[in-house]
Every structure is written in C-alpha cells, then in structure tokens.
Amino acid sequence: MSNLTGLNHELHVFEALESEVRSYCRSFPTKFQKASGYQLWDTKGSVYIDFFAGAGALNYGHNEPRMKQALIQYLSGNGVAHSLDMATEAKERFLTDFNEIILKPRNMNYKVMFPGPTGTNSVESALKLARKVTGRQTIMSFTNAFHGMTLGALAVTGNKFKRAGAGVPLNHAISMPFDGYMGKDINTLEFIENYVKDSGSGVSLPAAVIVETVQGEGGINVASTAWLQGLEQLCRRYGMLLIVDDVQMGCGRTGSFFSFERSGIQPDIVCMSKSIGGYGLPMAITLMKPELDQWSPGEHNGTFRGNNLAFVTATEALRYWESSQFMEEIAAKADKVKTALDHIIQAYPELDGEHRGIGLMQGIALEQGKAERISQLAFEKGLIMETSGTNSEVIKVMPPLTIDNEGLEAGFQRFEECVNEVMSETRKPVKV
Ligand SMILES: *Cc1c(COP(=O)(O)O)cnc(C)c1O
Fold first, then answer.
1. Burial, 430: exposed, middle or buried (Cβ in 10 Å; 0-12, 13-18, 19+)?
2. Is Transferase one of the keywords UniProt gives this record (predicted)?
3. Is 221 a pocket residue for ligand 1 (Cβ < 6 Å)?
4. Which of 54, 68, 195, 278 would bridge 58 by S-S if both were Cys, CB 3.0 to 4.6 A apart?
5. Is any atom of ligand 1 closer than 6 Å to the C-beta of 125?
6. Is the CB of residue 274 less than 8 Å from the CB of residue 401?
7. How many angstroms separate the alpha carbon of residue 415 from the centre of ligand 1?
8. Per-residue pLDDT, 83
9. Whose CA is nearest to atom 11 of ligand 1?
10. Bridge partners, 388 (sequence order)
11. Does ligand 1 come within 6 angstroms of the Cβ of 142?
C-alpha cells in the first residue's frame, strides 16, 4: 500500500488498484460524485452535461425521481432484493405491466425470459435458444455488429480487437454485410441470399440471424426499413429465426419503445437490457415467441435473474409508455438534435462531417482522430460525449431521452465550441 501514500493525484487509487482493463474512466478522467437528470457532478464541483447516458442504460436520466421514490419505498418496506428466479410481487408487477403497457397495445405476443442481468446474457440466451429450437449451429450476424463480450456474443461481434480478446476460435457464426456496407447502391440482401441458397457457398443454413436495427457501437449505422423488412422475409423464406438485439436501441432510443417498430417487422426473439431496468440497475430480458419457448426448467440459469430493485424501477419506467406523449417528446428532441448537427456540418465544411443516426442516437462521422479529439475537448468543457465506430470515427450524441431543451442547447453550445477548436487545431499545421 505504500505506493498509495504521498501521491495526491485524484485518480491514483484507480490507477494503482484497479485493472488496466478500465476504459471509460480514461476518456472521462475525473471522480464523479452525484448525478441528476442529464447532469453529473465531480468531486471538484464541476458540472457535466451527459450526452452519453451510460451507453444507453440511462434513457430516463440519472436518479429519475419517481423511480427513486419507488425504490426507497420498496427498500424501506424490506422488499425482497434478491430472489434467484422465485416468484416475487415486484416481478409480478413488472410482468403484468410490461404485458399491458408494452406488448398488448402493439399486438405482440412474447414470453419473457430473465437471462441474467446484462445485455450479453440476453444475447447468449437468444443464441442458445435459436440453436436448440432449429437444431442448427451457425448464426448469421453483420459487419460492425456489437452483441457483447462473452464468447457466444463475441462470435457474432465484428470488432477485431474485441474478438481477439476471446483467446480461442470464435466459430459457428458467419458475418454478412450490413445495410449500406457495400456502398449505397448495393442491396446486401441479394448478396446474402446467394450465400444462403447456394449449396456451393460453403455456408450452412444458419439457425438465426442476429441484427441491430441501428448499430450503435459499430458507428451509428441505420438499417433502412426496406432492408429490415427484406431481412425478415429472407428469414421466413429459409426458416432462419430473426433475433433483434435491442439492448441499446430499445426503450425509446430510436423514438419508439422497440427500435424495430418503424419497420413493422416481428422478430422471433428480442434481446433487451441497458435501459430496461430504468434506473441504471442491472436487468435484462429475452422475449421469444411462445412456440419457441422450448426451454427445459433451469436449462439456462443464473444467480442474478431476480434483481427485484430493478424490477421496481423497470415497472416505474413503463409509466413513460402509457401514452404517446413521451414518443412525441423524443421525436421533437430528435429533430432538434438533427438540426443542430446539420448546422455544425454546414457551418464547418472543412470538417467534412457526415450525419448519422435517428431518434436520440445521432452523431457525426469524421476523419480519423477528430471525433476522439472532440470527445476530449468536450470533457474539458463539461460535456460527456463518446465516440463509436471501429476507428472511433463517429462522435455520438445520445443524451437521456428526458433531457430538456435547456440541456440540449447548452450541450450543443459546448459541442460547437469543441468543433471550432478542433478546426483551428487542424488548420495550423501544413496538411500533408
Ligand atoms: C451494450 C450492448 C450489449 C452488451 O450488453 P452488456 O450489458 O454490456 O453485456 C449487447 N448488444 C448491444 C447492441 C449493446 O449495445
């Protein structure tokens, strides 16, 4: 411990005691203390506007007051906190309300599985179920996909660096071009169908296709509604199950509760996590069409599938979806973000930026290095913004969906200052 004393650097404890694997704390190097709505405070009293929202786990903002109240009340009443997958009142309320508020009004019929509390747990359960039900092994995924860090999910993830972390071959998966991957004028579905139908392609018929309707980590790549519909038809034609990974894009991020609602497709299996717990508490669900629910009791298991504190806040979060008002508010804010990003792209033509995204998942794709520099400068100005894309080439705007106009405007003012600074930095040296 002697190496801990004498040094006063505020992140010293983390550097000395926590693994090198930590990442976000390197991009945002301060010690946070409290948070509310779209704001965070550090121990030095600096205030940050949050345009990152816990990577999509904080769609309803930090410490959402109604959820906090429900949580405090549940805790004071000695509500069960941990229950494996035993029946509890808190879980019953969540299941009932999820069915009434989310599934029924959308004419959806899904069984709900609690696969363990993380997104990657949900993805693993979906892949296992698809393989079990079809008796086939291969899963089709897409270029630039991100599905999580456990082996099954990594096998369907595109990123080379993350895949290499596995240390073993990642197999029983095949990566196909996402919408737009082969250029604007090429329909990748035709390309994919050739592989699926041709017995000489070397690709055996997949059990399922797993897709993000908008690839968040992969660079904010939006699949068109026509492509998604075509993908669904392709799945039906060849008897492949359609899995939508809505871990990050679900819970309103793209404007509707499920990200696939804009396309009208009906996935066989849906993975959700991140904001499903509402408060930033760990929780995940896997939705499956009832006829696919062929699990044997305990065949997929996990100690933390009964996080009742998350069930309490998740139930409270569903209140946002009782009317169309929340969706309308998201749409209005999404327009505002689009306008602000277009303004920046036009006002700084040298930036050569390309708008990406829909809903409150938008950003600008930039020449390599610029997005990371903007993120760095933004942090110095009290704005939390992350990058995405294989080469961190996209600067991402994903605030809590509950952010108000004042917060959006203040954030964009800082954002534009950063863009301005990056432009003057890159203007100075002679370009090679
Ligand atoms: C974050 C994410 C995951 C993994 O979720 P974890 O909770 O980090 O395991 C899977 N899929 C998508 C699309 C994600 O954004």
1. exposed
2. yes
3. no
4. 54
5. no
6. no
7. 26
8. 97
9. 147
10. 394
11. no
d(C-alpha 341, C-alpha 367), whole Å:
16
Q: Which residues contact 194 (CB under 8 A, 6 or more apart)?
A: 201
Residue 5 is predicted with a pLDDT of: 47
The region, left, alpha or beta by phi > 0 then psi within -120 to 50, assigned to residue 398 is beta
> How far does the centroid of ligand 1 lie from the alpha carbon of residue 385, in Å?
18
- Take atom 8 of ligand 1 and give the residue whose Cα is closest: 119
Contacts of 18 (CB under 8 A, 6+ apart): none
Q: What is the DSSP letter of 100?
A: I
Take residue 196 and report the two structure tokens written for it.
Answer: 């699926």
Amino acid at 178: F
Atom of ligand 1 nearest to the CA of 215: 13
Closest CA to 64 of 217, 251, 220: 251
Cα-to-centroid distance, 260 and ligand 1 (Å) = 17
What confidence score (pLDDT) does residue 427 get? 76
Q: What is the pLDDT of residue 429?
A: 61
Q: Which residues of the chain have pLDDT under 70?
A: 1-8, 428-432
Q: Which two tokens stand for residue 409?
A: 């405007």
> 269-272 and 241-245: which strand pairing?
parallel
Beta strand segments in 166-324, E: 173-176, 208-211, 214-215, 221-222, 241-245, 269-272, 285-288
* pLDDT attached to residue 277: 98
For a pocket test of ligand 1, which of 120, 149, 222 has the largest count of ligand atoms closer than 8 A to its C-beta? 120
Q: Which of 142, 147, 258 best tests ligand 1's pocket when mutated (most atoms within 8 Å of CB)?
A: 147
Nearest-angstrom CA–CA distance, 332 and 312: 29
Question: What DSSP letter does each residue of 335-386 carry, written as one string?
Answer: HHHHHHHHHHHHH-GGG--EEEEETTEEEEE-STTHHHHHHHHHHHTTEE--
Predicted TM-score of the model (pTM)? 0.96
Per residue in 91-100, pLDDT (tens digit) is 999 999 999 9
Ligand 1 contact, 123 CB (< 6 A): yes
N-terminal to C-terminal alpha carbon distance within the chain = 49
**DSSP H helical segments within 253-324, as ranges?**
308-317
